[in-house]
Amino acid sequence: MSPTILAIESSCDDTSAAVFKDGKILANIVATQAVHEKYGGVVPELASRAHEQNIIPVVSQALLTANITKSELNAVAFTRGPGLLGALLVGCSFAKSFALGLNIPIIEVNHMQAHILAHFIEEPKPQFPFLCLTVSGGHTQIVLVKNYLEMQVLGQTTDDAVGEAFDKSAKLLGLPYPGGPMLDKLAQTGNPNAYSFPVVNMPDFNFSFSGIKTSILNFIKNNTQANPNFIQAHLPDICASIQQALIQTLMKKLVLAAKETGIKEIAIAGGVSANSGLRQTMQEYANKYKWNTYIPAFQYCTDNAAMVVMTAHFKYLAGEFADQYASPDPRLRIAL
Ligand code: KG4
Ligand code: ZN
Hints:
This protein is α/β, with parallel strands linked by helices. The chain has nine helices and ten strands.
């Protein structure tokens, strides 16, 4: 029997609820929190409060869109981590009380695993085993995906995540939050070879993105001393060059991982997989290295509950349920 599941995602600054029924996603409602814009980044306490305000309307809208009643649900899922503790707590507490009221089981979901399993929402779906470059605001990982619920992190960032590098670079250039998508947009009309930024090579399959911020800071300082209008005059070229350095850093390790594992099924996931340059590079590398590449639809790149409900579906089938003692884990890891 295919279960009917409601899932809630509240790990960062998006409150989302999705409904899965008869093997399909029937609703995926996302409320993005505008409150953080004026602070230039996510303020954890404000995120928790906004989740509290959004959660009931978002869940109601998801049930309405899916055209189902609460009594049809077989389970309620929530993101347990990783993420912001207070934000996760809202989704976790809501899911537990909702499930308790309906006397149905709860399912806890790892947010990073969910980003990867977003690839099973729509065709084409990757074949196991595949490699997934998981790139978000908090993570940068190369994951060996052996099965739906069996994953191994081959390498990861030793400091900042690549999404953070995009956002911090954008901030240094005076772009509004969230900077990643804005930097991407400007990069599309720029020359990626106009300036060069360091592509840091870490051991094994690991990454480092903290140095690029300093190099951009020095680059801006030096050039604006000579010409105060330097940024305004060259913004698309600067953005395109930064984006190219970040993408090259990612692709270098992805190529290495593909080579060493012999795997040619290669996916990307997470917020940064919405980046136009990364998506294009994946297509180019598919031809160059004879990879089968998998790039998520835009709506499933950034945070959403559809990916959480998809993961919950696989956990339901595997009989992996949580209990009322479940609590958020801001540093939850993908199981080895
Ligand atoms: O997965 P996600 O929505 O949230 C986390 O789990 O962190 O990822 C958010 C990150 C942010 O750093 C955001 O700037 C970045 O994804 N992002 C992008 C683009 N769209 C979102 N970065 C570069 N280019 C984009 N088009
Ligand atoms: Zn995410």
